Each structure stands twice: as C-alpha cells, then as structure tokens.
Amino acid sequence: ADSSLNGLQIEGAQEVHKIAVAVDASLDFVLAARSIQANFVIVHHGLFWQEVRSITGPLKEIAEQCFAANINLFAAHLPLDASPKYGNNFGLARSFSLENLNPAFEHRGCIGDNLFKLSLTEFEKRLELMPNIGDPANLAKLDFGHSTANRILTLPFGPSIPRRVGIVSGAGVDALTAYE
After folding, report:
1. DSSP letters of 131-167?
2. C-alpha 69: how far from its chain's center?
3. What is the distance between the alpha carbons of residues 87 and 80, in angstroms, rounded to a whole number?
4. pTM of the shown model
C-alpha cells in the first residue's frame, strides 16, 4: 500500500532523450530539467497522492512547465524505497556493511545482520557524517515529549552492539513493529 500514485503522472514526449532525477517534483526541479532539455523526469515524491486532485497554484505551474517542454513525469515512491538494488534503505544498509539483507517493515525498509559488530554509537557517528543526513536538525533520540518528524530516530535500547539492524526511512517509521 502506498499513498503515492506511482508511475507516469504526466505524459510528455514519446521518445526519451535525456532523463533527470530528483527527490521532489518541485517547480525548481522541473525548470532545471527544462534547462538541460531533459524530457523524462523521475521523482521519489510525485505530484499526486492518494488521488488526482485539483491542478491549481504551484501544482498548475509545475504541470504547465512539463506540458510546455513535453516532459514526462514519473513517480516511484515506496517501490523505490523497497528496491533491493536501488532503494535508499538497502543502500544505507550496504554502506554499513550489513549482510543477509531482507525486506522489512511492510517492505518499506530492510533488516540485516551486523557481522562487522558495529556498535549503536558507531552507526550514529556514521550517520552524522553523511551529507544532508548528519545535520543536527535531522538527529533525534527517542523522546516521547517531542516530535520526531523528518528526523533520524535512534531507538537506544538493547545491546550496545546489535546483532541485527533494521533501516526504514521517510514515513515508513509508522511500519515499525517488533522484529527478532
């Protein structure tokens, strides 16, 4: 289940000559794609969620730019998150050298074995060093008194060197359940 309308959201040119990719289907991104003459854009967060809605305001501007430049706009939300080859969760797991990776958290993330015996502290340090992730505004310890939206959430319980590590990004945190 995904709230994103995955797939082709705006139809443009029949032949693809140049592809651009981004996290969000923003006006700035579409204008940048136009400037490099990309005619197929792939985004993680598309224009439509749950259902097609009124195309007004900023959404109208984005659609107009796509139509004017004959740009195809393709969204891949949870299918991209869940991809063992291209997904951000599996990619992050591989960067930590986790082994025996399997889909987890309703296919929104993955879980793997910590064969190199990295400590929870080491995982946190490595995350803090990653560009765009390590920003202090994105780091949070579990604190029931504060919002954890748009943050890296560490659940600091259990052994200091976890045997298995689960990774889930974005809104997938609502899929967290007990795993052995």
Report:
1. TTTS-GGGEEE--TTS--TTSEEE---S-SS-SEEEE
2. 27
3. 5
4. 0.72
